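Practice problem: predict the structure.
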Amino acid sequence: MGSAPAGGRVLIDGRNVQHALARAGSARSGGGAPLPTVALIARLRAAFSPPTEVELILDGHSGGGPSGKIAPGFSVSYSRHATADEVIGDRVAEALVALGPAGAWSVIVVTDDREVRDHARRNGARVEGTAWLADRLGAPAGRPVRDGSTIGQGRPPRSR
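Answer:
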């Protein structure tokens, strides 16, 4: 798909991305632990620069981790008592109201979650999968991270 628009907004489904990158790492090194939030933030900051606004949205509470505006054009939010999926849905709906249908296209949602993806598209936002983000982050080629649903946890279909 495309690249982040200059002056656009990127909403990142944080836990979805952390687990997708962990799957990619486990395929290469036998690891598999999710990428720590601080490490993900560092990689995202290197991949995007102002005027693109990036919001990393994570489930739960910060637990002392980075939160709020971290750098120009980059913020981290936690869903608290809602889910990150609900927060992303709210942000996309707010963008549609504030920017109109044409402006909502400047919002990119990064997720492999089918419901989040469908809601974002219905509200005029663009959607990119974790493979797109992994490419931006410079993940090695040949990783198993793919666009698509979380059904099968990123594994290819079984052959019979």
